[in-house]
């Protein structure tokens, strides 16, 4: 039931982001010169590295899911025996990568604001910050979810299917957030 509920909820989130994409394309179609000026200020290689970090976090998240499915909450070997990591270690690494993504995005925001691109500067700034900002809020929500799942793994007397299911549905959300970012990244940074 939890998995089905999560998929239904993610469907509503998909509609939310579809609305943001529609807003972005509508504003872009009416303000072509403004878009050309604004998009010149984007640092595409920097954003590409940040995208690779976020996509990597999806890989580490999935390794955490594999460990949760084996009902292995924590590592069974040394810290550097990555092959023996449990869900907690993989989710902590995912959390760190997600945190780096948010920090780099905040740095990018500060850099753009210093160059005159802000939420209130023009339609380009509004569209850029609204779409990427809502995505960033979703990433923060995922990071909070990872902390809750990790805390639950430590609090549980016995790590069972209930805890594993919670980890799995959290991964659904995280993969969804990553896929949305890939779409945003292609549209904002590459589509001319």
TrEMBL record:
State the UniProt keywords alphabetically.
Cell membrane, Membrane, Translocase, Transmembrane, Transmembrane helix
Under PANTHER family, the record lists: CYTOCHROME BO(3) UBIQUINOL OXIDASE SUBUNIT 3, CYTOCHROME C OXIDASE SUBUNIT III
Q: Name the family the entry cites.
A: Belongs to the cytochrome c oxidase subunit 3 family.
Name under which the protein is recorded:
cytochrome-c oxidase
Superkingdom in the source lineage: Bacteria
GO BP annotations, alphabetical order: aerobic electron transport chain
Q: Where is the Heme-copper oxidase subunit III family profile domain?
A: 1-192
Q: Which organism is it from?
A: Arthrobacter crusticola
- Spell out the InterPro entries in the cross-references: Cyt_c/ubiquinol_Oxase_su3 (IPR024791), Cyt_c_oxidase-like_su3 (IPR000298), Cyt_c_oxidase_su3-like_sf (IPR035973), Cyt_c_oxidase_su3_a-hlx (IPR013833)
| Principal EC category | translocase
Which membrane topology describes this protein? Multi-pass membrane protein
Q: Do you know which Gene3D superfamilies this protein is assigned to?
A: Cytochrome c oxidase, subunit III, four-helix bundle
State which residue ranges cross the membrane: 7-27, 47-68, 88-107, 127-151, 172-191
List the record's Gene Ontology CC terms alphabetically: plasma membrane
Provide a Gene Ontology MF annotation, just one: cytochrome-c oxidase activity
* Catalytic reaction equation(s): 4 Fe(II)-[cytochrome c] + O2 + 8 H(+)(in) = 4 Fe(III)-[cytochrome c] + 2 H2O + 4 H(+)(out)
Q: Coiled-coil stretches, from where to where?
A: none
Its Enzyme Commission number? 7.1.1.9
**Subcellular localization(s) per the UniProt record:** Cell membrane
